[in-house]
Design goal:
Helices cover about 10% and strands about 45% of the residues. The protein is mostly beta strands and about 180 residues long. The strands form two sheets. Strands 2, 3, 4, 7 and 8 form a five-stranded antiparallel beta sheet that branches. A four-stranded mixed beta sheet has the order 1-9-5-6. The protein is elongated and about 55 Å long. About 20% of the residues are buried.
């Protein structure tokens, strides 16, 4: 199955964060986004030239899952966010496991209010080189405050490449 086009990514992100209950449809929710340069993680052997023979793993975000609902007594907005990934084990991988770093950040304009990093363990079944996995959903509570509009906040999520891996993503562009 072909991966969705990046042009459809904003639509998929909005659909993933759509409220499920009728009374939650009127809740203001933060914007949820997946920047293109953190949607992929290609890891090669340390110090080796990046080519197919040195590829350890290649991970791609296939979907962002999210929902938004009213908090208790309408005093907050509750958001749950998670990622679904396709992870390919490369020829240079040793063992049947991998550790995929990912993050969630909450921003108000350009100011980072909160950022948390996670590691998703991935296990490859015997005789396979691909795994479809999902991160645990992370719950975020936004207390209602006078003068602050929840819809003006942004939640950014994605994989957490090293500086060299991030540069590779930016050089090759979205896949």
């Amino acid at each position: 199955m072909k991966a969705p086009s990046l042009a459809l990514l904003p639509v998929l992100l909005l659909a993933a964060c759509a409220p499920q209950r009728m009374e939650d449809r009127l809740v203001a929710c933060p914007q949820l986004s997946l920047p293109a340069d953190v949607a992929d993680l290609t890891r090669h052997l340390p110090g080796a030239a990046p080519d197919l023979s040195t590829l350890v793993l290649d991970a791609r975000v296939s979907a962002v899952d999210g929902d938004c609902r009213r908090g208790r007594r309408d005093q907050s907005v509750e958001v749950a966010v998670g990622l679904r990934l396709r992870v390919d084990r490369g020829p240079a991988a040793t063992g049947r496991g991998a550790q995929i770093p990912w993050f969630i950040a909450v921003l108000d304009g350009e100011e980072i209010l909160s950022r948390q990093s996670f590691v998703l363990p991935v296990a490859f079944a015997p005789n396979t080189t691909r795994a479809e996995v999902a991160t645990p959903r992370v719950d975020i509570s936004f207390p209602a405050r006078p003068g602050r509009r929840i819809q003006d906040l942004r939640i950014i999520t994605g994989l957490q490449p090293s500086p060299g891996e991030l540069e590779l993503n930016r050089r090759r562009g979205p896949r």
